[in-house]
Amino acid sequence: MRIVLVGPPGAGKGTQAAFLAKNLSIPHISTGDLFRANISQGTALGKQAKSYMDAGNLVPDEVTIGMAKDRLDGPDTEGGFLLDGFPRNVHQAEALDAYLVERGIALDGVLDLEVPEDEVVKRIAGRRTCRNDSAHTFHITYKQPKVEGVCDECGGELYQRDDDSEATVRNRLSVYHRETEPIIDYYKQQDLVATISALGPVAEVTQRAMDALKSNKSA
User: Is 88 annotated as a binding-site member?
Assistant: First the structure.
């Protein structure tokens, strides 16, 4: 299956993408991985991306599109793929469509993970990270440490990262609504979108997604 995963920050796209890709036996392709791989390997596109990032600028669509095309040309995508974070806007979606048409293939579905805005803010703004090891994360509601403000793993101080602040989260949501959300309507015109609730246990959300994909494919 060839799938695009869409949803606001805090919807759990990364977690769901990993589970879905494993269940469907297809590669999970995330924008973050594309950037890291190209930059670490020193590809021409990676060097371009790094120059923009180092200058504090957004990486142009054409660079991101180029990375995505190169990755989709890989032999492991012949049986399908799951795209997470790409396309990020309608221009990128149009470029993806053109790429797929050239290769005589098409998307099977677009999964839209739906989460209320207040829940997104609660999920992200409630995160706390250990100053000693950023891999140690907790949450003031969902994963409380045994001692408030203290990491269970190493005893380090727990703090709220700047990019987890409520103001930053709401700004990220504004950017999502303005730039990425329009691709949902774009794909609805192709009758590809299945919207599912991303609330509840991870396994339940994954099952909803699997059921939606099966229903969409048989429709």
Answer: yes
Q: What is the pLDDT of residues 119-131, one digit of tens each?
A: 999 999 999 999 9
Domain tally for the chain? 1
User: What is the pTM for the complete model shown?
Assistant: 0.89
Residue 88: domain span: 2-115+180-218
In a domain, 208, yes or no: yes
CB 207 within 8 A of CB 17: no
CATH number of 17's domain: 3.40.50.300
Residue 175 domain-assigned (yes or no): no
Is the distance from CB of 1 to CB of 57 less than 8 angstroms? no
Assess whether 71 carries a catalytic annotation: no
**The one catalytic residue among 2, 71, 123, 127:** 127
Query: pLDDT digit string (tens) for 31-49?
Result: 999 999 999 999 999 999 9
Tell me which of 2, 13, 122, 123 is the catalytic residue.
Answer: 13
- Whether 217 is a known active-site residue: answer no
Catalytic annotation on 13?
Answer: yes
189-202 burial, b at 16+ Cβ within 10 Å, e below that, comes to: eeebbbebebeeee
- Active-site residue, selected from the candidate residues 50, 69, 170, 172: 172
* Any domain includes 68: yes
DSSP class of residue 111 equals E
